[in-house]
Amino acid sequence: MVFNKYIWLLLFILNAGIPVFSQPAPAIDENIPYLITFGGNALTSWGDDDFCQIFYCIIPPTQTGPVYIRVYDPDTGGDLDELKGEFNTVVNFSIYGGKDCWSDTSAQALNKTGNYKSGYLLSSKSFGADPKYDKKWYSFGPFNPSEGKYVEKLGGRVFKIIAQGISGDDGNIYKYFLSTSPVENIAVEGGNWFTYKYHFRLSDDQKHISQIYPFVDDRTISIQVSNFDWDNDGIIRIFSVAKNGILCDVSGETNWVIREFPIVAEEKNSTIEIQFIKNQSVQVRNNNVVVIVRNQYGVSLPFYVVPIGGVPVYSPKIRMK
Fold this sequence. Notes:
By secondary structure, the chain is mainly beta.
């Protein structure tokens, strides 16, 4: 199977006694400060093309106790959030498990027009401007791991969380953590997060370099890397075992740019690194970006916050065709 390599690697590390911990989303190593979702009445020129972000978390079979999905700063109205006039935004967070929460093709689609809310609704809450949630954690749960959909090729049970802008035009800035506790961030060993369409806020620090990690399966012979509303904030490079920082085309205001790259045999069943290097001449602040990667069939590839197989290391012995 496509993900056998990942399952084998995870079992090897666990058997070796090396602790594996889930990461927050975004992960620390991604060097991305926050996720962002705008209200449903916002302009796409602010860097959000559809006002909806879907993430999935994987609970390994070794986790039998309850889990919690925690959201940091879920309200839209504090110091972190992106204000447009006066705060008037409501964002809904909803958690899904059960049959089809991941396997329904609409759940993995890039356009939020089908049954992307597939599965069984486990919990839901809408947040407006509420100071009691500002820079605080809100915990959804507890969830029994058995409430998630078991997916063999993903190596565990899957839950889905959707952040959707209901109304207003401000930007809700937040992040997630998969925890075994409702009151603190205690990682689920062997857990992971992934998404098919990554909406995030870049750091204002021009020295920061951010990176995200799509996984390339064994059916892929080429990838299309797309980015939205880059706003002249530097350059984007692609790294892998066969690519050593190849430049990717970048988008302007409110538009998508697509660049295609071939995939060689050594890159199959491995992780690609997409690196975002900020503009060194002009400081671009509050830059929100959307990134997707498709294969040659137009099927979206998953971004894992903990890269499958580790961060790719370029090998000069592998020559691009």
